[in-house]
Design a protein that fits this description.
heterodimer, A: mainly beta, 7-stranded mixed beta sheet, 4-stranded antiparallel beta sheet, 0% helix, 54% strand, globular, B: mainly beta, 11 strands
């Protein structure tokens, strides 16, 4: 167990729907990162939150949004889902910038 | 943006063999990590190694930051070592994201 908890582990949903992925960082870690892993794009950075504030943005679609709550857990919201959004979504956390990342076990999203 | 290239892309070994995986990167970095993605999809942190050498059991890693490469050594490989090995870097003075290479897929046969 890495200490980073992601739920759910698997999600199957239909096109056009909206889902929420949840991440609890390791105890004491202030930064949360979201990554998408698809077969054709590899591991891509989506967004980072640090202590509740958005810190950096990557190739995140406008249909996707995220937030980090006061207890430091984070949620990634994916809406108007398309077949191409099917992927593994990882959350990672770190104490501060430049420290090693620890990844959760991922949420496997299948859009049908 | 920074380029992270891993070689070889695929590697097939017999159990007990040794191997070296390489990661080249195109810019100065302040964070480099090696990860193992197992067949179930989990990303396991192997090393945080922006410079120098570290060892953990049968695995060791060396990063030569001035020459912009890192090596991951696997000795006496086991079937449980199978999976994809990723190198990921964070640029000095850049954003805080980790940029991943495309990975080396390792298959260890019994």
């Amino acid at each position: 167990d890495s200490g980073v908890t992601q739920t759910p582990k698997h999600l199957i949903t239909a096109t056009g729907q909206r889902v929420t992925l949840r991440c609890s960082p390791r105890s004491g870690d202030l930064s949360v990162y979201w990554y998408q892993q698809s077969l054709d794009q590899g591991l891509q950075f989506l967004i980072q939150y640090y202590n509740g504030e958005e810190r950096a943005k990557g190739n995140i679609l406008e249909r996707f949004s995220a937030q980090q709550f006061p207890d430091l857990h984070s949620e990634l919201n994916l809406s108007s889902l398309e077949l191409g959004d099917s992927a593994l979504y990882f959350c990672a956390s770190s104490l501060r910038t430049g420290n090693g990342y620890t990844f959760g076990s991922g949420t496997r999203l299948t859009v049908v | 943006g920074i380029q992270v290239e891993q070689s070889p892309p695929d590697l097939i070994l017999q159990e007990g063999a040794n191997s070296t995986l390489r990661c080249n990167f195109s810019d100065s970095v302040n964070n480099l990590q090696w990860f193992h993605q197992n067949p179930w999809g989990q990303l396991i942190n192997l090393f945080y190694i922006p410079s120098g050498t570290k060892q953990n059991g049968r695995l060791s890693a060396t990063t030569v930051a001035t020459e912009r490469y890192s090596l991951l050594y696997i000795s006496s490989s086991q079937t449980t070592d199978s999976g994809v090995y990723f190198c990921a870097v964070m640029i000095q003075g850049g954003s805080e994201k980790l940029v991943f290479g495309k990975g080396t897929k390792l298959t260890v046969n019994p």
